[in-house]
Design a protein that fits this description.
With 395 residues, this protein is of the alpha/beta class. It contains 13 helices and 14 strands. Helix 1 links the parallel strand 1 and strand 2. Bound molecules: sulfoquinovose-uridine-C1,5'-diphosphate. It holds the Pfam family Epimerase.
Length: 395
């Protein structure tokens, strides 16, 4: 049994990850300051269904499974608060119950502002994204450096760090030959949003920590995630993760399904040739778990590309159309002027075998899998707000 700290335990991926680890017998503590919920409220993004707060979710989880997920509410940009999670102070202040050693074996770091459009709303949201994301990563790094260098950090990066270069994308590293000599460097990064740029900066911070202090870190370069249910959330409707379909926090597959359900023509940005690597939310959990089971070594920044298959936006729209029609919906598509600055027709050939090599078994986006997500969204059709689907936040 391991002590696992999950930073950002209230988010789309954080809460399902907490249940996944708890179900497998680990001592799980989630930390969150409700950044995402508050941002949804502030920006009036709407949600498919209401989600109980962390304490309520944890109580429900305990009632159903007999297992305990500890909850700490606090702001990880505060270095003292973060350090308290590693040196037993928080324990002595009575936030943790007996059982938590105060020395986590693994920290899973999801506590970041995850939306590209949010980061480009205006300079204030750009600043919030930069300060939140970089301070939390830096606080975590220093806490581990000063208080326990055996803690394995699993950080969620993004495939967006690489952008869409005209060469094959490797898993994190590239060997370069130059004037008869060679060396290995981080793969060139060129993000197309400020949010994605903070993830590049995270990687740079962590690479510094690994080189200088011998920290052990896994950085998972994740593509856009889709889906709702996991094997744990199906135990009760109120254990479902937060599901956004709005322009700011909704990712494209979840958005297209929701749009199809309410008869809103699918919002294909530009030509729709943008290709990305996608994964089911169930695979995020699997990938993080496998990375935890076979940790990086001290002095290693291990990078995996966390995607299972690639699609263009058009391919996703066609799939949503086909599946929606088979469920009796009349799905329409529309090409709208792309509010983002991104290539709409580009080379894309990322490598992504590292996670498979350590045992991940992918779920693919088949018609059946998409139909299951459609059925869940259809159950909540009355909650879907058309006015939050497209606002046109420009880069
Ligand atoms: N897109 C549309 N129509 C829409 C929404 C999106 O055509 O209504 C297009 C976008 O222009 C983009 C693609 O679909 O080309 C993916 O967009 P997205 O909003 O699903 O994903 P993105 O903004 O890239 O960000 C999401 C997560 C982020 C994560 C990233 C992985 O929000 O946290 O890091 O996926 S990746 O894209 O690989 O960088």
């Amino acid at each position: 049994m391991s002590d696992i700290l999950i930073f950002g335990g209230d988010g789309y991926l954080g809460w399902p990850t907490a249940m996944y680890f708890s179900q497998r017998g680990h001592n799980v503590t989630v930390v969150d300051n409700y950044f995402r919920r508050n941002a949804c409220l502030e920006l009036d993004t709407g949600m498919l269904y209401p989600v109980p707060n962390l304490k309520e979710r944890s109580k429900l989880w305990h009632n159903i499974t007999g297992l305990e997920i500890r909850v700490v509410i606090g702001d990880l940009t505060d270095a003292e608060f973060t350090r308290g999670l590693f040196d037993g102070r928080t324990l002595s202040e009575g936030i943790f119950e007996i059982g938590f050693s105060g020395i986590p074996d693994t920290v899973i770091h999801y506590a970041e502002q995850p939306s590209a459009p949010y980061s480009l709303l205006n300079y204030k949201y750009a600043n919030k994204t930069i300060t939140n994301n970089l301070l939390i990563t830096n606080n975590l790094m220093f806490a581990v450096k000063d208080l326990n260098r055996q803690t394995h950090i699993i950080h969620i990066g993004t495939m967006g760090e690489y952008g869409t270069p005209n060469i094959d994308i490797e898993e994190g590293w590239l060997e370069i030959k130059h004037k008869g000599r060679k060396d290995k460097f981080l793969f060139p990064r060129q993000a197309s949003s400020l949010y994605h740029t903070t993830k590049i900066m995270d990687t740079d911070l962590m690479w510094f920590g690994v080189r200088t202090w011998g920290l052990k870190i896994t950085d998972l370069m994740q593509g856009p995630v889709y889906g709702v249910e996991t094997d744990e959330s199906i135990l009760d409707d109120s254990l479902k993760t937060i599901f956004n379909y709005d322009e700011i926090f909704g990712t494209v597959v979840n958005r297209f399904i929701t749009q199809a359900v309410v008869g809103y023509p699918l919002t294909i940005y530009g030509k729709g040739g943008q290709t990305r690597g996608y994964l089911n939310i169930k695979d995020t959990l699997q990938c993080v778990y496998k990375a935890f089971q076979s940790p990086a070594k001290n002095g290693e920044l291990r990078i995996f590309n966390q995607i299972m298959e690639t699609f263009t936006v058009l391919e996703l729209a066609d799939l949503a159309c086909k599946v929606g029609d088979s469920l009796g919906l009349n799905v329409k598509l529309q090409n709208i002027d792309n509010p983002r600055k991104e290539s709409e027709n580009h080379y894309y050939n990322p490598s992504y075998h590292g996670l498979i090599d350590i045992g991940v078994v992918p779920h693919f986006l088949t018609e059946d899998v998409m139909a299951d997500i459609f059925r869940i969204v259809m159950k909540f059709k009355k909650n879907i707000r058309r006015d939050v689907i497209f606002k046109g936040i420009k880069w």
